[in-house]
Specification:
heterodimer, A: mainly alpha, 3 helices, elongated, B: two-stranded antiparallel ribbon, 2 strands, 72% helix
Amino acid sequence: MPLQAFLILAAVLFSIGLFGVMTRRNTIGILLGIELMLNAVNINLIAFARFRGDIVGMVFSVFTICITVAEAALGLAIVILLFRIRRTVMADQLDLLKG
Amino acid sequence: MTDVAAHGLIALLLPAFSFLVLALVAPLRRSGLPAAWFSILCAAGALVAAVIAWNHGTDMGRAPMTAERALWMWLPGTADSPFATVGVLVDGDSSRMLILVALVALLVQLYSVGYLSDEPRRGLGRYYAYQSLFAFSMMGLVLAPNFLQLFICWELVGLCSYLLIGFWYWKPEAAQAALKAFWVTKAGDVGLLIGIVLLWSHTGTFDFATIRTMAETSAIPMAGLSIATFGIYLGAMGKSAQFPLHIWLPDAMEGPTPVSALIHAATMVTAGVYLLHRTSWLFALTPDVLAIVAWIGAITALMAAVLACVQEDIKRVLAYSTVSQLGYMMTAIGAGFSAAGFFHLLTHGVFKALLFLGAGAVIHAVHSNDLARMGQLARRMPQTMIVFVIGTLSLAGIPLFGGFASKEEVLGAVWAGGFVGPFALLLVAAFLTAFYMFRVIFLAFFGATPELDSQAMAPPVTTEHGGGGHAATHNVTVADVLHVHDPPIVMAAPLWILALLSLAVGVYFTFEHPAAEFEAPAWLTPAAVLVAVAGITTAWLMYQRRAIDPERIAGALAPIRRAALARFWIDDVFAGAYDIAVLGFSRLVGWTDRYLVDGVLNVVSAETLETGDVLRKLQTGRAQDYVYGIAVGLIALIIWMGFLGRFN
């Protein structure tokens, strides 16, 4: 398979993730969208590593996966705390930054 | 440093030391009388040093004095000539002037102990601190070896004048008079500064001796020199109260009388005359400016003499008389014989200080400046009367009295200089001088006894001491109520010293006529004396014998009288010019600031607020909207960069 196929897959995955982040009302859904976007990046990294024969991209993706896990854990913790305080996890009701 | 210069320096630094001590050692200043005596001691030391300097320089007055200098570098310039120096220059003129300043300063300080005895202690200390500062500044001016030091001291004496006129600063008139004096003289000082700088651009130096050498060898470029000398004359005009900048001097009488004697009669106001005499070699190069000096001097002399005739305030008569005499000196300088003007300055310093201090003694006793509230004082104040008459005869120019020789000298100089017009003006002024001074004498010391009326019983308005009459019945004179008597010894001693000095100078110079640079015509002396005697006789007929009714004369000369009472509208012209120029300009600037500058700012700020109000609605506070923005922005960026072909 050519490199373009991987890149198109990654772009589609990223767009789906971005669409989720922008449209989901539920905070957990937004977190899932972010995960998708990060994984799209991972696919990009792996694809380039493979096609260029360069190990660095793979090492990088391992790091990204680790950070993603940590981010997901932190994000979920924040969501739980948010729920305890505001009794909701709907993103459109969390408008403390309103000008 | 030579012996002479060293003594000059000592005379200069003693009052400075006194001022510094009084300014820095607050307990001494607040103690009042000790501060006064400390300052007097320093002034006495300065006088002794000044006399020694003159004595050593002239070999007891037998030899002409050579110029002795002591200079220190102040601002470095090129290697061989510093940009500015400070120091002392003791020569014939400056040493005599130094003695006059030190003498009058000492006597006035001594006199003030009695005159200001009612003053609170703090005020007295402040007064003597100012007095010491003034003595130092004036001596610095007199001894200045260059224009720069002269200008600094020139401003310092102006400051002291301001401080001492406004000594009773809680009186609104005094505060206003102080401001007026400061501003009017400052207007002239701008001219002086411009003149000095212009002169520097012509010659490249401030030093008197260097410029003099250049002037005498015609090394100064003549183009534009008139502007420089005229600028210097403007400074002298402000300081020496020449028309039309004389308006501050009569108002300056709001200060304590000893201050008027020292600053506004004997020393500071003569600084302008001194400056012109000091730089006469420079003015000789610009005869057109000298002609202006002569004409303005003569106009000043006559105008002030007319004004003095209608004043009801004894100090204002003397103030206008000072303006008039300064006009005399200036006219002599303008005629090209500055030595005559300087000679008149010295004698005038002695007898005018005497007259002011005498008037102070009267004011101190009567608690009023108003001539109408005096009368018959000769009976109760015989000593004061005698010294006052000596001073008046000196001022009128009667032989054997102080001002006789110098006044002849001035008139002779003006005639010899070919200024017939100013000469005629001065002769009329001489008549008026004798007239108004004897008017004061007859009104204050002789003449009718003023009876106490209800107005006189009220606390007097014009008083300097705020004391009023005690209980009294009718048909009692003011003098009786206030227990008028001669002043105490600390006040009487300076009066007698000045009176005897005035007499000694008069007698000496009546017989030993000073060597003049010009030939005065033989008819001059009899004419001048005749004019003075005519003035005295007129005053006697009008105010003592009442043979001529003053009211009828006043009626006959009504237009002049009205004009004189309005001070010839000169103050009004200045006030009008101020209204139109300064206030008009201020109003324009104020309008611009309020409506144009502020308007623009207000519109900008209002628009900003409104725009902000609209734009804040963009901030929804929802995180997803921001993600929208970022995503859209990112896409727009990508498209833009793609269009510009920057992707590769």
